[in-house]
Here is the input.
Amino acid sequence: PTEINNEREVVIEEIKRGQDSFGRQASQLLFSTAYQGHTYGKPVIGYEKVIRKISPKKIVDYFRSRYVPGNMFVVLSGDFALPEAKKLINQRFAPFHPYKLRSVVRKKEKAHVKPRISVQPSTFEEASLNLSWKIPKVRHKDIPALDILALILGQGDSSRLVRRLRIEQALVNSVYASTFTPVEAGLMVISAVFNGDKLEEIFSGIAAELEQLVTTAVEESELNKALTNIESEEFYGMETVDGLSRKAGHLEFLLRDPDYFPKYMQQVYRVSREDILRVARKYLTEKTLTITLLMPEKMNQKAVAVSARNWVKCFTKISQQKKPKVSLKKARARKMMRLKKRTGGTSAVELVQVGKNAKILFRSSQETPTLSVKVAHLGGIRLEDEGQGGLTEMVSRVWAAGTPNLNEKQIHVRLENWASSLHAFGGRNTVGLSLDCLSPFEESAADLFAEVLVQPIWPAEVMEREKLVVIEQIRNRDDSPGQIAMLKFMEEMFPGHPYSRDPKGSIESLKNMAREDLAAHWSKMAKQGNFFAVISGYVNRPLWEKTISQALKSLAPGPLVGPKPANYETPEKKDVFIRLEKEQTHIVTGFRGLTFTDPERYTLELIQSILAGQGGRLFLELRDKASLAYTVSPMKMEGIDTGYFGAYIGCSPEKGRLAVKMLHAEFQKLMQEKVGEEELMRSKRYLIGRHDIDLQTNSSVAGGILFSEVYGVDYRELFTYANFINAVTAEQVRLLAQKLFAQNPVTVAVGSIDPLSTG
Here is the structure.
């Protein structure tokens, strides 16, 4: 009973957290409206009134009625011996009492025979629109065609809705189409997040695309692109053991067949353009339409409801209009992707010098037909001048949007035809470019990557569109109190240093920014002597050596100039409270930390592990015993000049004062007492295991090697990580804790009650 009562408070904290979550509120509104009288309409986490009164006996009875051997399956994937694994499963599960599985008859949903509209006011700044239609359960023969339809409609930058609403007209912050296919009737969903004053234009754009969809067969090129992307899931999913087990478990649960994917692909390849037109006409009708809108309170809710009803009338005309007849044709014969056969496992990392200064690190792995390419330049926010806030953010958004030979749309189409992703990134210390692709498309993707890498043209129209998106994100910050707390923490922790700045900049700095500023900022960093590249996976090494060597000739010679290393004092003790009427208070507290190359950085990782996770001290003391929060965790950042170490917690406002006190009490314990041997070993095992798990994908390996090189760390430490962690002693943990936690703390709280005042 004590544990249950503690956990009640924790679950209620998570319910409150959900009430502050824009995405969760929008999703809950959709499902409660679309599924009336059915369990799919209920929030998975439940309701506070139920959590408060549920009895221990009811919990035990429920557990014994569902968690029984006859209702369970176990999935293992990875490096193990099957006979031993079977033996262990039998041993561990043999004592499991075979309670009788209770049969359950679900309530049938209320008949959905006419459109449903629900408009809900909210305290959020952004608005959410969800349109959904009922579709069959997962086993139905039309599901493959509906999956393809969703992909063509709203998945990827070259999809119809994303292209029209996000890229060409800049009406939405995001838009997506998807299928929800459970064991009972599912949904086809179009979701858009936007600013409330653009609703009419968004409705108009969606109507135009849906009319096109139900009157004209999709293009063959669109269908082929969708098939390639669906098939690519098989190969990208092979990179991780958790990806393999998740897929097998998902298929076992829904279809009672963990090897169903090849059968599904056979169905997918039989889908024709006419099949997609048929299912669009069959399922996208006004009868099972649901419209839900989560709108800011300042909006006229009645006017919003009128707009929704008018759109239903518009859509009804579209769905009921006389449509041209089409003869249903069989799909054209299509071939599955052919993968090159290569032999060998994973090779050691090899360095190739390019020109005088640049270098490429290759790691060949034949385990999956995927490869990852990453290039970085030192600079980032540390290279921004005062008043240039957001410059690195905008470089990362516009870099890959055009070259002298290709516009943004052409780049998107090519990438998605190859089931590949290419994007720029920018942060406090670097900017760069990243590519993930499948081996059949390696040569084409290499040419595109090289062109984008050294020939960006910074299209003005793309920059203006992205500026508007970022400006709206800044204006909508009140929707993310945790983000507000973190930004203020960074400002107080690193006064006068570029790390203190908001990565997105300010509304004023963005409005004053020109495309020439982006080009100049990039040119400072994109030099031959400031070039780092790593390629990992199923890689054609000669191809990349030639491609990158040729591309580098377009970059200016010489190293990065500036910025100078920053010297500054440890900040004074700071307590900052920002009032915001939310269900939870978000608290960030911490101390000045370490650099990327500090020899004590592995000891700091161990301190983080001691505090983190379900077996960590913060979880056990603040969550399990004190029931203060659902989410509490340590956090750290290393930097070129310095870093931070601290903790975050989200809790009810009245619990904030105790939360701050208990966080610092845990820091004090680490200063005063040596960590016990058992706890130390548990933390080491967790760190080492997590590190190895995180290095399963070619992308994560390439990223780890790349940033080691960029920040002056020997990349080989990535592969001998366990040696460094195992060498840390309990005394080293205590000494570093004394060094860090004796400093002045910075604490920021965002919520409705000040937990930091002394009154």
User: Anything to note?
Assistant: The chain has a mean pLDDT of 93.
